[in-house]
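[Discussion] Sanity-checking designs against the backbone

I'm trying to build intuition for which residues belong where. Below is a C-alpha cell string of 306 positions. I'd appreciate it if someone posts a full sequence so I can compare it with mine line by line.
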C-alpha cells in the first residue's frame, strides 16, 4: 500500500462503525486504504468490505484480500453497486470527505499551491473538465458565486472581475501564472488566501457538493436497521449537510412529524457533538487539522428512538 495519507481519526471511526465480525461495509473514500485495512482486520471470514474511489491512482492501493472488493466509481453512485452485488444488508458506511494528502503532494495533479503544474484539480482523471477550463470559461457571476460560497473569498467580486479581464489577453494554464495573478488580490496571509481560492476551484471542478448531496440522499436506499454511518468532513459546507441529515433525516434540515407529533427522522445521533482530533494526532497528521467527525445509527422510522 503506498502512502496516501495517515488515516484521519482512525480509532474513532472504527469504534463508531461498531464492526460486526461477519458484517458488510462500504468505505466510500478508499484512497490509500488505511481505514479499509483496519476495518478488514476486525472482520471475520464471512465479512465483506467494498471500497469506492474515482481516482485511478487509488488502484495501486487495492487490498489483496478475498473479503475486499474495489469499485472505481464516484461515491454518489453507491446504491447502484448495492443492487449489482446483490447485497441484502449493510452494517456500516464510512466516508472521509475532501482531498487526500497524496493528491495534494502529487505535483502533476494541480491541487497544491506549492508546486507548478497545469491547473488540473480533477479527482477523476477520466473527466475532461479542469480548473483551467473553469477559469477560462465561467461567467463573472458564476466565478463570484463559487469563490464566495466554496472558498469564502471575501473579495470574490473584485477577483472574478480580474479573472475575466486577464483571460481576454492570456488564458490561464499553469499554477505559477495563476498564483502570480492572485498576488495582486491577496488579503491577509497569502497562503491562506490562495488555499481558499484553490479549495473553491477544486470543489467546483469535481462537483463535490453535488456528489455529497447525492450520496447522503441515497443512504436510505442501502442502510439496514442498526447500520452505522461515519462521516469525516473538512469544511463547514460538508459538515452542515451531514449535521442536518443526522439531526432531521434530510440534508435540507427540515423537521417532519407524524400525526402524533413524533419527528420523522430515521437516524439516531451517536455523537451529540462533533468529534475532532486530539493534540497527538494533530502533531502527526496535518490533514487532521480541520477534520470533524459525526456518527449516526440508522434506526428506521418504525424503530426510531423518540
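Best answer:
Here's mine. Compare freely.
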Amino acid at each position: 500500500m503506498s502512502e496516501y495519507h495517515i488515516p484521519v481519526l482512525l480509532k474513532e471511526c472504527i469504534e463508531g462503525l461498531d464492526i460486526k465480525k461477519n458484517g458488510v461495509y462500504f468505505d466510500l473514500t478508499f484512497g490509500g486504504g488505511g481505514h479499509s485495512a483496519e476495518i478488514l482486520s476486525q472482520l471475520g471470514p464471512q465479512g465483506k468490505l467494498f471500497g469506492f474511489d474515482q481516482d485511478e491512482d487509488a488502484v495501486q492501493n487495492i487490498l489483496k484480500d478475498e473479503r475486499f472488493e474495489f469499485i472505481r466509481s464516484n461515491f454518489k453512485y453507491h446504491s447502484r453497486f448495492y443492487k449489482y452485488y446483490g447485497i441484502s444488508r449493510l452494517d456500516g458506511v464510512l466516508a472521509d470527505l475532501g482531498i487526500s494528502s497524496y493528491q495534494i503532494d502529487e505535483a502533476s495533479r494541480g491541487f497544491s499551491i506549492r508546486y507548478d503544474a497545469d491547473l488540473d484539480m480533477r479527482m477523476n482523471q477520466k473527466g475532461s473538465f479542469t480548473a483551467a477550463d473553469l477559469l477560462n470559461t465561467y461567467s463573472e457571476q458564476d466565478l463570484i458565486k463559487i469563490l464566495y460560497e466554496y472558498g469564502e473569498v471575501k473579495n470574490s467580486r473584485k477577483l472574478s472581475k480580474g479573472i475575466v479581464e486577464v483571460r481576454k489577453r492570456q488564458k490561464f494554464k499553469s499554477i505559477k501564472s495563476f498564483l502570480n495573478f492572485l498576488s495582486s488580490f491577496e488579503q491577509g496571509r497569502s497562503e491562506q488566501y490562495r488555499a481558499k481560492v484553490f479549495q473553491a476551484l477544486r470543489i467546483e471542478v469535481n462537483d463535490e457538493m453535488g456528489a455529497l448531496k447525492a450520496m447522503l440522499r441515497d443512504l436510505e436506499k442501502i442502510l439496514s436497521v442498526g447500520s452505522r454511518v461515519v462521516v469525516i468532513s473538512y469544511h463547514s459546507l460538508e459538515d452542515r449537510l451531514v449535521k442536518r441529515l443526522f439531526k432531521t433525516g434530510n440534508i435540507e434540515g427540515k423537521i417532519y412529524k407524524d400525526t402524533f407529533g413524533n419527528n420523522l427522522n430515521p437516524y439516531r445521533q451517536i455523537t451529540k457533538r462533533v468529534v475532532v482530533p486530539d493534540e497527538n494526532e494533530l502533531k502527526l497528521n496535518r490533514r487532521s487539522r480541520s477534520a470533524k467527525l459525526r456518527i449516526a445509527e440508522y434506526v428506521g422510522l418504525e424503530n426510531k428512538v423518540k
